[in-house]
């Protein structure tokens, strides 16, 4: 079993890799993420499975994109819940499987379905039923690198990984040999309340990093970690970020103050989704393959997200001065 780097007020256990007993909240959610990005940014993708048992639905998202690729996307926010004790989702248009071989160890992700081809990624915020479609398949494996990072005070953990296997888009089969990350969290998740920034990637020398900041109106030492080449996870709590947004509300760049590895994240290809609350409010979730430029000259690729619930501009974002909102 991979080493767990403990540092918080709750203890991560091997059984936490499995499903948890839901709480009473309508928006109680159990979420699994899996992403990857080729070292040169040529291809990247992610899968998210979100389970809302008290809302009687699952969210299933899967995509492939890249520097010179259109977005190929499945974004189903009304998927059937998996059968009890499983995490597989089956519909009339796709079949998705998830197998965790051992706690904090390898995970296999399978997918075979019809996906929308979106040359304009922001079309994902609307009705994509009329978009051109193609077959999208994943046969991918996430292998743990250097241990497990539990968040300090909430039930959530992140695992840096290497990702291998194949992705098929239409008639094209793409061999994947890339760094990535996976995470798992559970508890109430109100996507229409708080905005946040989340980012992870790997630099060219092999250094993995991860960072997260929610906009709650005041500063705290936000979580981050780094994994030096061949080393183990190093806690580097104290992260903060500033972001410049474009006129379309898509982020243009973010300055990520990862302790010891400050860098700039520049989006190369967006893979967004929109989510609608039980009472009809809409939140936008722009997630993007990014190029990372560290201040010491290192570069790399990975994923960043900037969640935008209703009124997100007033949520205390730190904006870059040049061209950004003030």
Q: Layout of helices and strands, plus pairs?
A:
Elements: E1 28-37, E2 44-52, E3 57-66, E4 69-79, E5 89-90, E6 94-100, E7 107-118, E8 133-144, E9 149-150, E10 156-169, E11 172-188, E12 196-203, E13 208-214, E14 224-227, E15 234-235, E16 241-245, E17 251-256, E18 263-270, E19 273-276, E20 282-285, E21 287-294, E22 299-307
Antiparallel strand pairs: 1-2, 1-11, 2-3, 3-4, 4-7, 5-6, 6-7, 7-8, 8-10, 9-10, 10-11, 12-13, 12-22, 13-14, 14-15, 16-17, 17-18, 18-21, 19-20, 21-22
General description of the model:
Pfam families: DUF7064. This is DUF7064 domain-containing protein. It comes from Actinomadura montaniterrae. InterPro entries: DUF7064. The protein has 326 residues and is mainly beta. It has one domain: AttH-like fold (Beta Barrel). The protein has no helices and 22 strands. The chain has a nine-stranded antiparallel sheet with strand order 15-14-13-12-22-21-18-17-16, with no helix packed on it. Strands 1-2-3-4-7-8-10-11 form an eight-stranded antiparallel barrel. The relative contact order is 0.17.
């Amino acid at each position: 079993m991979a080493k767990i780097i403990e540092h918080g007020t709750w203890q991560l256990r091997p059984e936490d890799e499995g499903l948890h007993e839901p709480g009473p909240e309508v928006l109680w959610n159990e979420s699994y993420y899996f992403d990857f990005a080729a070292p040169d940014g040529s291809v990247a993708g992610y899968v998210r499975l979100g389970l809302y048992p008290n809302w009687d639905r699952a969210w299933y998202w899967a995509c492939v994109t890249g520097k010179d690729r259109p977005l190929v996307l499945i974004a189903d926010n009304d998927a059937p819940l998996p059968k009890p004790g499983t995490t597989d989702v089956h519909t009339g248009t796709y079949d998705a499987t998830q197998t965790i071989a051992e706690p904090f160890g390898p995970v296999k992700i399978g997918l075979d379905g019809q996906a929308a081809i979106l040359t304009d990624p922001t079309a994902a915020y609307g009705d994509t039923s009329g978009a051109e479609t193609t077959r999208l398949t994943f046969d991918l494996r996430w292998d743990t690198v250097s241990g497990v990072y539990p968040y300090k005070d909430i039930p959530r953990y992140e695992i840096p990984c290497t990702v291998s296997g194949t992705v098929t888009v239409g008639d094209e089969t793409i061999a994947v040999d890339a760094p990535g990350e996976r995470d798992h969290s559970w508890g109430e998740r109100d996507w229409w309340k708080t905005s946040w920034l989340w980012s992870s990637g790997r630099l060219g020398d092999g250094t993995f990093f991860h960072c997260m900041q929610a906009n709650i109106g005041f500063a705290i030492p936000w979580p981050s970690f780094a994994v030096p080449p061949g080393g183990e996870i190093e806690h580097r709590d104290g992260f903060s970020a500033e972001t410049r947004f474009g006129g379309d509300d898509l982020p243009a760049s973010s300055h990520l103050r990862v302790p010891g590895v400050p860098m700039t994240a520049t989006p190369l290809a967006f893979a967004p989704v929109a989510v609608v609350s039980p009472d009809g409010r809409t939140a936008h979730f722009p997630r993007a393959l990014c190029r990372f430029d560290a201040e010491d000259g290192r570069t790399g690729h990975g994923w960043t997200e900037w969640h935008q619930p209703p009124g997100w501009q007033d949520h205390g974002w730190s904006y870059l001065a040049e061209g950004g909102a003030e």
